[in-house]
Amino acid sequence: MQPNPKRLIDIIGIQFPLIGFYDTPEPAAFEPLVSPESGRHICVFAFFDHWLKGKTLHVTRDSYGCGGAGRYWCGVEPRSREEMITFLVDTEGLRSSREIMGKWLDEGGHYGMLYDHLCIGPLRSERYHELKTVTFYINPDQLGMFMLGAYYHHAPGDPDPVSAPFGSGCMQVVPGTEKADYPRAVVGATDIAMRQFLPPDILAFTVNKPMFKQLCDLDERSFLYKPFWKTLTKARKSHG
Fold it and tell me: Average pLDDT in the 63-92 region?
């Protein structure tokens, strides 16, 4: 059963819908759907406004939007390894050398589709069994709250629950943490190529299912109900 995020949403004041990444054999269950036009290059985050309207992005190996999503989400190689390195290093300048970028590409892996359909859009509690990650789109103050929530049960020596890995926006949606059986989260939307589709003060916090449950289970003993957040909220309101 899907945990209930309502208390978390209400207290922190999250304004955007929670976005789930689903690997499913039944895309019709996620209607209304919107899909990238086959063969047309378009960032999957160009569909952010569709998510706000309750629509779900439907991605397949034949229709994936951009090369990054095709490669990482669907295992499709739209460019050769050398072409990809040339684009990322020589055209975009994202690494200091072709060698370093090549190593990153070789070790990055792929998500690994279970079915033929990926659906990214507002949460569907009835499809919780197909959910891989949940992404919260939040401002920096709210990110601070989520960091507290991620570390709430963390003890010295435990695996670090949060990371901020280099990668495309779509890589940060399923960054490998979805395979962990303990709470994990990633700070995302740090890819400047996709940020044009988000409001300027918004970042992403993507969590796996164990972390989603941990956050939803925060109760009255936690920081959610204590003075720090109330003081910060009051300060923001007083400054307009």
Answer: 92
